[in-house]
Amino acid sequence: MARTTGPFRLKTGSLPLLATVLTLALSSHAVAATPPPAAPAHLQTQPVPAAPLSWAEQVEQLKAELRHDPDLSAAWVARVLDSASRNARVHRLMTPSSSSASYASTAPDWQEYRQRLVTQERINAGVQFWNQHRQTLQQASEATGVPAEVIVGIIGIETSYGRNTGNIRVLDALATLAFDYPQSHPRAAERADYFRRELGHFLRLSQQNRLDPLSLRGSFAGAMGIPQFMPSSWMTYGVDFDRNGQTDLIGSTADAIGSVGNYLQAHGWKRGQPAWQAVSLEKVNAAHLETLLQPDILPTFSAAQLRDMGVQTGADSRPLQPGTASNAASTTGTPPGNLFALVKLRNGDRAPQYILGTENFYAITRYNQSSYYAMAVLELGASVARQATATR
């Protein structure tokens, strides 16, 4: 309602009763139309935020949510969840200020990162793994289109070929991150919701596969087995590659190999496409370089767009040292019809290196969202393949 802005005047001495009535009426109107002045800020009542639910309250809430799940026994769920405990180490490792948490996804120095993961010891162990499972690797590669060396590279980086699969009870890791995710994380609520869902998947996985949820051990994030699959990935991408009637990523190397190949295939791996190419940027100006780097690892540019911005590949490019895999780099130019990303690999205070990542490079980063991780996988797998071939 519009408010009166001008004064209302009556002549002095005329119709005093009417004036009084009108004055009272106008005053009443003004009170009705104009809200009272706000109280001083320090006197205003602020809404009290709801207190966060306790661990026990969240456990009861999840029990209630899962009570009607046809794949789960409510009594069994209750017994398992009541057995979960907060793991202080998990909480510390997931706290953003911790330098121990997920160093692979934040490594600023590619050469230092590579030296830490692509070691001769790991290569030698990879050759042994390759020779022992050569036939299974070949079958998985033929079935999924993912080269054996990429599968070997992932399993080698993740668990040193099954030698280090984690020693934290998975139930405790997932419960800690679901019910007590570090609040200092900028996406704490979102991450807690993710791990809450993973905890539910873990319960389904355990009951469906007759696994003991109180004894299963894995990483501080709840990843399990030879390939370090999260429960949802195990249920979605795990395959019974040895055809024994059960998908076992803890005790069956064949299932682990087949599941890694299946995971990459499901995330867009293109059969026969190289994962990356060496590149030269000598003819790329600053504006184009900024444009090329903006999408980060997401394949965005066609071969024609790269040429238009001065990017040189193939025989005209400088190779990335040390070494490349047979499937990882091409010297014949960019395949037509594919998309690429210019990936920057930082080397601390030294000059960065650049590669041209393909859609297959991006598929590897769906396993771990880090260009450093993907390059380490490719370098390790290539080194194992070369040495295994040379010593055969």
Automatic annotation (TrEMBL):
Active site residues according to the UniProt entry: 158
Domain Transglycosylase SLT, chain residue ranges per copy: 56-381
Q: Identify the stretch(es) annotated as Disordered.
A: 313-333
The signal sequence is: 1-32
Give the GO terms filed under biological process for this record. Answer: peptidoglycan catabolic process
Q: Fetch the InterPro entries from UniProt.
A: Lysozyme-like_dom_sf, Lytic_transglycosylase_MltB, MltB-like, SLT_2
Amino acid composition bias (Low complexity), ranges on this chain: 322-333
GO terms for MF:
peptidoglycan lytic transglycosylase activity
PANTHER family of this UniProt entry?
MEMBRANE-BOUND LYTIC MUREIN TRANSGLYCOSYLASE B
Q: Which NCBIfam families match?
A: MltB
- Its name, as the record gives it, is Membrane-bound lytic murein transglycosylase B
